[in-house]
Amino acid sequence: MEFDALIKTYQSRVENALDFWLPNADTHPQTLHEAMRYSAISNGKYMRPLLIYATGDSLGIARESLDGIACATEIIHAYSLIHDDLPAMDDDALRRGKPTCHVKFGEAMAILAGDALQALAFYVIAHDDKLTVDAKTRLKMIDVLSLSCGSRGMAGGQAIDLQSVGKTLDIAQLEDMHIHKTGALIRASVMLSAYAASDQPASILEHLDHYSKCVGLAFQIRDDILDVEGETAVIGKQQGADDALNKPTYPTLLGMAGAKARALELHEEAMQSLSHLDQRAEPLRMISRYIIDRVS
After folding, report:
1. Is CB count within 10 Å lower at the N or C end of the chain?
2. What is the mean pLDDT of residues 227-232?
3. 52 or 42: which carries more pLDDT confidence?
């Protein structure tokens, strides 16, 4: 299957899963559920679900058994974006080409929508009857996802980000921030899918874990590049926002050429990590390439 068609297949699956698990907008309390759906089903790239399905295809896992965890990771991502966009955080008014949740529904409702989405993600993993794993593995998945979005993952990375505004970081400090803020949930997405195949040898899990670390960091570098080179109408958020907030970024630290070279280096490292997998891992290889070439 061609890459674009495959991506649309993955995206369609997760959108259907989101529609199934998210409460209907007319369910009481209606405004909260409307805000949740507005933020979670919103023309995103669905990068984390894409990695889940691609990992599953690489390991021969039935896609229907992955719909729940694909939905859960996207819900976590949506909650994080709602909170990141708040005036107390990045104060963004545009996300995915439309007003951010707090602009449309107010700050208080946006906070509640983010809280409710985070809780829903774990409910999905706990209750998805198509996830064909034993209770021990399901608990491990909840453990992995909770760590990825907590103080030792995404929330911790955001805290570091807020404390780094206006400061000069070295490359190790910048990568540490983004390994937590962006990379942790991307890494969790790949590993959640891998854990759905209980018979995988430890060596394969290690290679997939390293792949996920590389693409997670490359994704953030490309985001930093697009903040400089991208167009607001294309990237779906305000171009130049990081510079306006005086945030440390890869282009600022390494220069634009250096940032692009680092992204390519990470892509090549990710490819090496997949060398132990057969042609079924081609979607993972194509996603890595897509991450460093994307324009939105």
Report:
1. N
2. 81
3. 52
Beta bridge partners of 94: 99
pTM as predicted: 0.94
**Taking residues 184-210, what's their average pLDDT?**
94
Instruction: Identify the CATH number of the domain in which residue 275 sits.
Output: 1.10.600.10
d(CA 249, CA 47): 21
- Flag whether pLDDT at 234 surpasses 80: no
Task: State which amino acid sits at residue 270.
Answer: A
Per-residue pLDDT of 147-180, as tens digits, reads 999 999 999 999 999 999 888 899 999 999 999 9
Q: Buried b / exposed e across 98-115, counting CB within 10 Å, b at 16+? A: eebbbbebeeebbbbbbe
Backbone torsion region of residue 166, taken as left when φ is above 0, otherwise alpha when ψ lies between -120 and 50, otherwise beta: left
Euclidean distance between CA atoms 129 and 135, whole angstroms:
11
Judged by DSSP in three states, 259 sits in: helix
Cα 79 to Cα 77: distance, rounded to the nearest angstrom: 5
Looking at the DSSP bridge assignments, the partners of residue 99 are 94
Check: CB of residue 185 under 8 Å from CB of residue 171.
no
| Max CA separation in the chain (angstroms) | 52
Q: Which of 292, 175, 154 is nearest to 223 (CA)?
A: 292
Which of the pair, 123 or 229, is modelled with greater confidence? 123
Judged on CB neighbours under 10 Å (0-12, 13-18, 19+), 134 is: exposed
Beta bridge partners of 95: 98
Distance CA 206, CA 87 (A): 39
* Torsion angle, alpha carbons of 187, 188, 189, 192, to 10: 130
Domains held by the chain: number: 1
Q: How far apart are CA 242 and CA 31, in angstroms?
A: 31
Range of the domain at 36: 3-293
- Residues 101-111 have pLDDT tens digits of 999 999 999 99
